[in-house]
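Weekend entry, working from home. Most of the wet-lab plans are on hold until the incubator is repaired, so I used the time to fold the two sequences that have been sitting in the queue since the last round of cloning. Logging both here for the record. First:
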Amino acid sequence: MAFAYTAQPTTIAIPPSPEQFTKQSVILNWLISFAADMAPNPATNGSATDNSNNDLKKKIIINAFDMSTIGHLSPGQWKNPVDKSATKRDLQYWIDLAKLLEKGGINALFLADTYGGYDTYEGKLDNCIRRAAQWPMTDPTIPISAMAAVTKNLSFAITASTSFEPPFLLAKRFSSLDHFTRGRIGWNIVTSWKKAAFKAIGLDSPIAHDERYEQADEYLRVLYKLWEGSWADDAISPDTENDSYADPEKIRTIHHHGKFFDLDTRHIVDPSPQRTPFLFQAGTSSAGQTFAATHAEGIFVSSHSPKLLKPKIQAIRKQAAELGRDPQSLKFFATFTPIVGRTDEEAQEKLKELQKYASTIGGLVLVSGWTGIDLSKIPLDQELTSADSLEQHKVQSLLDAFTVTSEHVPKWTPRVIAEKAGIGGLGPVSVGSPQTVADEMERWIEEGDLDGFNVGYVTTPGTFEDLVELVVPELRRRGLYHEIPSEGGHTLRENVYGIGQSGLRDDHTGSKYKYDVFKEE
C-alpha cells in the first residue's frame, strides 16, 4: 500500500536556494527571521520519545534537498574526502542517491536550480568559480529518468523559472517527465530576479517584483489550459481497423491571448498520470503569498522560530480559503540540516571536522549574492555596521539575521558571518544524536505545526546516509514517519493527499481548466 499523508493543520519555514526566492529584499526578510544557532536545544533532549498513541501522530513528510552543483549550501566541503559533490556530473551519483533515499522511504528528492552565477562579491564571478560556490552546475532534469528507473516510490521535485522559457516548452518537459516517472514529478515554481541570469539568457534586466508574479500567474493559467484542458481522457483510442490512434476532436486547441503570452495550440503530449505536476512554491512577500494561496500545494515559509510561523501560515491559509480552497490542503515545509552522530558528543566532533573544510570566501560569495551586499569591500575581521554605508538597510537586515538568535557573538565580521553561513547555509542546523535531532524535528512540527522538512546536507551522501540510517528509524520508532510501502506505483500527489488523488483537487484553481468543464472566454 502507498504511504498517504493525511491532511493536517500545518505551518513551516525554509532557507534560500538561488532561484527559490524571487528578490533580494525577500531574502533579507528571510535572513532576519531564519538564522539560528547550530547547537542542539538541551531543553528538548529526550522529551519527545513517548511511543503512546503513535498511530494518532501526524506523519512527517521528508524531502531530500540537493542541487546539481558543488558547494550547494556548505561551500568548501568538496575538499572533504568523504564528500562526493564533485561527482554529480556522473550519472552514477544520482542513481546511488536515489537508491539510498528509496531505501529510507524519503518522499521526494527536491532539486534546487539557478540560472546564473553569483557575481556580487567583488563584482565578478571569479571567486564564485574558484571557490565552487554553486559552480559549476548541470541541468537537474537530465538525471530524473535514470533515478526513476531504479525506484518505485521516490518522487522528484524540480526547480524551474517562469521567467525564461515559453509555457509550451515547460508544459512539454514536465508532461514528459510525469510520464517517464509514472506520476512522481513536482515543480518548484520560481520567478527570477538575478541580473546575471538575465544576462546569461540574453534578456534585459528583471521586471518589477509584483509584475513578475502577475506574469507567473498568467504563466500558470496557460499551463493549466495545456495540461488540464487540451486533451480529453479518452482522446487516445487506438482503432487498428480504421488506422486511427487518437481522436483529433477530443484534443482541444488552446487559444490564449494575454498580457504576457500569446498562443494557439494543442498540447503536444497526451495526459500524464498527474496531468499537472505537484506544485511547490516559496514566497514571503505579499504578492508571493497570494500566488502561493492561489496555486501552490506545497509551500515554503521562513522563520528562525517555529512558534513565529503560525501567523504567516494563517495568513496564507486565510487567502486560500477565500479562494475556495481547503486551507489544510496546503502543505508547509522547512529546510533543516542535521549533523548526526551516534551520540551528541560524536556529532559535535563531526561538526568540528566539517568546519575545517568550510570556505570563508565561498561563504561570503553566497551571502553576498543572497543579500546584494558586496562583502569584499569590508576587511575580513572588521566589524560590520550599517553606519556610513550606502546599503544601510541591507547591512542592518543582515546583522539582524544573526543577532536575533546569536546575541553571544561580540562582533559580527565578514569572517564570522562566513563561518556561520558556511555549514548548511543560513538555515537551522541540528547537531546531535538521532534522539536529539528527532527531538528538534518533532519540536518544529509541534510548535510550528509543520507538515515536514526539506532536509539539506553538509556532505553528500554522508548527511543523507545519516538521515536514512539514523534519524528516520528514530522517527519511525516514535510513530512520526511512515513505514516503507510494500507496493509502489503511486504518484507524488497521492503520496501527499491519499491514494486516488493523482490529479489536482477539485478545489484547486487549476481544476476549472479541466477538459470537461473548461470554457474559453
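Second, folded right after the first finished:
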Amino acid sequence: MKKLLLLAGVALSNFVAIAQQNQSVVMTSKFLEAPQKRNINLNQLKADKVNAQQATANKGTAGGSRWYNFVDMLSDIDPNVANNDHITWLWHKADMLSMYGTTLDTVWVRSFGTSLDPSTVLFNTSALYPGQIAIKSTDAYKVDSAVVYGFYERKAGSTTVDTLKISFIYGYGSTTNMPVYYFTGMMPSFGKDTVRFAHMFQDSVNNIAAKNTGVTTAVVTVNKLLTAASVNDTLSNGMNYFKIAVPTFNVPANGIVGMSVAYKYGATYPAYSTMYTGTAYNYNAFTGLWYEQNASGFPTYVDGEYNTGFLAPQPMASSSSWFGDYIPTWAYTAAYGLEYPYVDIKLSCTTCNITGVADVKSTIESVVASPNPATDVMAISFNTTENATTKVAIMNMLGQEVDAKTISAVANTSNKVVFNVANLNAGIYLYSITSNGQTVSNRFVVAH
C-alpha cells in the first residue's frame, strides 16, 4: 500500500513512498555484526562520553550549551532500547559489494540523516536533565558541534584518505529547508491517522542535505578526513567516534535541526568490487550506528515532536518518487531496524534557562511523592516560598499529560495534591510541579 505525502492539504503526486513491506523486509536482513574485538554497549557508550560532554549551568542563570542525543533520551525512559542496535555499511554509490553474513550484496545505504527538535517535552524535563539548558520553541539557538559514531575499518596497509561528509540544515515550514509534510492513514502502524515530520531533501550529486526550492538559507557542510590514525579514535568499547566543529550556524526560534552523514572512499576502484569479504577488507569502510525504539515494531509517534531518522537507500532510480529526498522513518510500511541514527549534536543558547526554571526565583521546596511505587493513590507534597497558583501534573514517558490539578499554594506551608493512579498502566511516570515560573519534576513508578 503506497502512502502519499501531503503538504498544506495538497497531494504531492510525485512524492509517493516506495518503501513497501517486501522492500523493508529485505533491508532489515542487511545488517552486520560488530567488527571483531569491538562491541556495542549503549550504557558504556553513554558513560564514556558523559564527563566530556556534560554542559554546566548555574541554577538561576541563563545561557549555556548542551549535548543532545535522541537515542540516549529514549534509552533513559526505556532501558530496552539499548538492546536494539544495528550497524550497516555506507558507500557513496551503488557499485560496491559486501558480505552480509553469508550473502554478497550491494552496499545499500548511501547516506543517513536525523532531525532534532530540542523543544521536545522530555528534553526539557528536569527529572531527566537536571541542570541542563532548556531550549523551548520560542528560543533561538546555535549548533556548535556534532559527533558521529560507527566503525571505521581500513584495508591493511592502506594510505588512502577517506571523508565523512556531514551537512546541516534547519527549518520548520514550507519557506524553509525543512518543510513539514505528513502521511495519512497511519493508524495501524503508529496509533495516529496523521503522522507529521520535518522533511529533508537530498543532494544526489554531493550526497548531502539539499536546500528546499526557492529557499536561500545555505546548507552547511563539514568534511571530516579519515586516515590510518582515525581508526584509533575510539571509546572503551572499540567504537569509533568523530567530532565535528560546525561553522557559524544560527537557528531561529521554532527551528528544527537536520543533519546528514555520508562516507566517501578516497581512491578509485573497479565497479562492483567486494569491499568486505567476511574476513578481510579490500577497501576502507565505515558503518553507521542505529537504534530501533521498539524491537521488531514501529517507533512511537508523538504529536507535535519532530525527532526523526532518515535514510537515502540505493540504488535509487532518478525516476523514483523518492529521488532527491531522504526517506523518513515514518514512511516504512513494515518495521525495520534503522530508525534513529546514533549521533550527538551540541546546541548553545544565550538566553535559555535551565530545565524547570522560567525565571530566576526558586519557589518550590521539600518535594515528597509517596508512596513510590504507588498502587492506588499517590500524594505529592511540597512547600512554596510565596503564595502562588500551582499546577501539579502527571505525565507518561512520552511527555503526554495524563492528569493535572491546580491549587492555590500557601507560602511556607506543606501543600498536598493526591492523584488516583489505580487506572494507570503499570510503569514509569513523571510528575511536575509548576509554580511562579519554576517547574520541578521527577519520576515515580506505578505498580499493580
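Plan for Monday: verify the second prediction. The chain has four helices and 30 strands.
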